[in-house]
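Hi P.,

Sorry for the delay on this. The queue was packed all week, but I finally got your sequence through. Input first:
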Amino acid sequence: MSLKRWLIAALSVASIVVGILYAGQIGFSYSFLGAESGSERYAVRFWSQISMGLGFIMLVTLLLRNKMNAKANDAILIFVLCLLFIIQLPPISLWLLGMIVGSNAAIGGFAVHGLLIAILVRIITFGRSNKSSAV
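Then the structure:
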């Protein structure tokens, strides 16, 4: 398996794990929200379900690569990678806001989403540097 596929598999697993952590409210503190703390539960639950779902779809698509048409497989993977990037934007923005207001608890959330975005960017740039659009 190529390095790019390994990165996609790692991103899939990371997306599922982060979704599980959010769903279980493990490791993240929303104390910087002050009086509004607690109002984020439904949005966080929704985000975690989307993250886990996209990670699962990406992992299954990658595992079924040999049984699918390569172009269809690539299209699905690219679409899911784009969606995964888009859903990272609200949480990383909110964690950045938390860091700006001085919450040390926001650093962990920002780092997690920053890592996911860094892996996504690496996958995209890896494809361009190899002159191959195939995943």
